[in-house]
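User: Show me an example of a complex going from sequences to structure tokens.

Assistant: Sure. Here are the input components:
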Amino acid sequence: MNETVEVRAAQAGDAGAQQAIYDRYAGRLFTLAFYMLGSRAAAEDALQSIFLKAFAALDRFNGKSALSTWLWRIALNHCNDELKRKRAETVPLETILGSGDDVSPEPSPERRLEARQTETVVGRALMELSPKLRTVVVLRYVENLSYDEIAAALGTSVGTVSSRLSRALAELERILRPLQPRS
Amino acid sequence: MSCWRIDVRRNLARYLDGAAPPALTDRVERHLMGCGECRATVVRLRSARAAVRQLPMVVQDDDNAPAFVTPARRKWFPHFLADAAVAAGFAIAFTLLATHVVAARADWSSFRTLRIADLRTSTDPHVVTEGTIVSREGESDEKGSRRFRLRDGAADVVCEVLEDARVSVPAIGQRVRVWGVSRYDARADHRWYEIHPVLRIETIR
């Protein structure tokens, strides 16, 4: 079933089609919410809210954009609203390390430890970026969206995406520089 | 940064990613030939990009599969969501059951014995370590679980017992051996290595 047919079926109440849409996008939206909100618990709550909003509004989806773009927008709006709502609170920095079950397995224990430490350091640096800069970094380098897809999801231009990414990478490098091994 | 070519600088990420159209790529490369500052910036951006590319996709816990409820949309709202709610209930029940069964049947000899000071370098999640209980901090902020601190020499570690676990925490000053899962808690107000959950405590003397 192609996506247009699937969306129509989902709009008509086909539970299988709705399940297929959920299965296809839940993982990526969960990852986005995790990096935007900084904790697994917040990401889990966000994922439920995002799909609640998406399915409640599905009959208003008109197919002018890709379903993925539409879902990214709902997810980003939700995460930004959450961040605004919790602005006074400290962003929880559970980051990536956790139990180690969070991430894909690495080839050896030594490599896994090294990778987990790197992920933690980089994850913390990422959380220091403003939500606007963090968003483009996650969409580009974690979710692997193209510049066009990111621009569509954010409702902005490719040039603006590139500008934000350039600033974000410069900022990340500034944060990470003291932690780099000296040669 | 004193280079005035904002049109180039704002496109450096796009250039690095190979996502710039040919004319833009050409413009950036011609500029880079004559601008050491932007060349240095490219090196720095590349370094940051390599770091951030190591961030993994995050896997959602199966135990926390969504269970949506939308009264307003119940008429057409997916049956699978109701199924998910039931499944989540079973998952929670199974987890609780499994926790107790695992604790009851665990092969404790398979847990790696480590000193507290060495926990931070361990890649084994299942560990057993030894120390003296130096504080009991009552209920933690997580679902009523109990937290205590274990010390051995100069090193100490936070240990957390889940609310449902049938594990008693001995008194302060007691020397104990603790079995559990070693992990790093990276929350802003924590940032410590811990044993969480504690699966078994054995009093030594």
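The lines above are the inputs; the final block is the predicted structure for all two components together. Confidence is low (pLDDT under 50) at residues 66-80, 94-104 of chain B.
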